[in-house]
Amino acid sequence: MIFDTEPQNWTELQNYVGQMFEECGFETEISKVVELVRGKKEIDVYTQDTRSEYKPIILVECKFWNKAISQETIHSFRTVVSDFGANIGFIVSKNGFQKGSYEAAQKTNIKLVTLKELETEYYSKWKQGMIEKYMPFADRLFPYWDYPGKMPVDGGTINFEVQQLIHSAYAPICRIGPQDQMKKGFRRNYPISIPILDDDFNKIDELEILSDRQYFNFVEENKDRAYEQFKKLYRE
Question: Are 210 and 129 in a shared domain?
């Protein structure tokens, strides 16, 4: 799934939701104040999928309550969504919804979900967004490890074993490719074990990646280091 941990308070829940939509590639604002028919209203998460055909606007209300959400809350948020003209409204609840809430949301554009249910609904778009974000970093590594690949600028040779070791150490980045851009293309089998190298290309430890979140966290944290290590090997 998208997140490995659960939010511990309302602020974290709001930030998780905002982060998820932002990583999907949506234009996203947290705590956005919008103009309604009866005045202004602060929305927990405002987001818009500007890359899709009809560019839906989505409003999200985050409820980190210790009780189920009542139908009165649904009616109130439905009015906000309608007055603003949003396409979809999500209420994300920590502890579910009362029976009357589901009845209040029927035949409306309001969806009642937990965070995990919201993650499930946007999981494919999230993967596509993350691949699009990191594809350029994979592309710049490609010439260094693809056969026959680059030649050192001084015309000399490189240590092939070290090149393969660097490739293994940054395999999560190197493995990102066009096949991952398909709707359900990104699939990895976990755990993934990779060597950790020092600045002199010595293996000093090993890292185990257990989830998609850890995979993309690794890419984010190592995208520039991988490039610098390949450049060092090729004496650039």
Answer: yes
Q: Measured between alpha carbons, how far is 115 from 2 in angstroms, rounded to an integer?
A: 10
* Average pLDDT value over all residues in the chain: 95
Residue whose structure tokens are 């139908």? 71
According to the model, what pLDDT value does residue 197 have? 97
DSSP 38-70: TEEEEEEEEEE-TTSSS--EEEEEEE--SSPBP
CA gap 11, 43 in Å, rounded = 13
Q: Which residues contact 55 (CB under 8 A, 6 or more apart)?
A: 48, 49
Quick one: 146 and 180 in the same domain? Answer: yes
Identify the helix (H) or strand (E) that includes residue 113. strand 110-113
Asked if 71 and 100 count as a contact pair (C-beta separation under 8 A), the reply is: yes
Residues 96 and 160 in one domain: no
Q: Are residues 44 and 107 in the same domain?
A: yes
Residues of the domain holding 81: 10-113
Closest CA to 45 of 26, 27, 25, 59: 59
Q: How far is residue 40's CA from residue 208's CA, in Å, rounded to a whole number?
A: 48
Query: Taking the complete model, does pTM exceed 0.85, yes or no?
Result: yes
Partner residues linked to 110 by β-bridges? 89
The tally of domains found in the chain comes to: 2
Structural domain ending residue among the three candidates 63, 94, 113: 113
Residue 168 φ then ψ, to 5°: -65, -40
For 112, the enclosing helix (H) or strand (E) is strand 110-113
> Do residue 178 and residue 159 come from a single domain?
yes
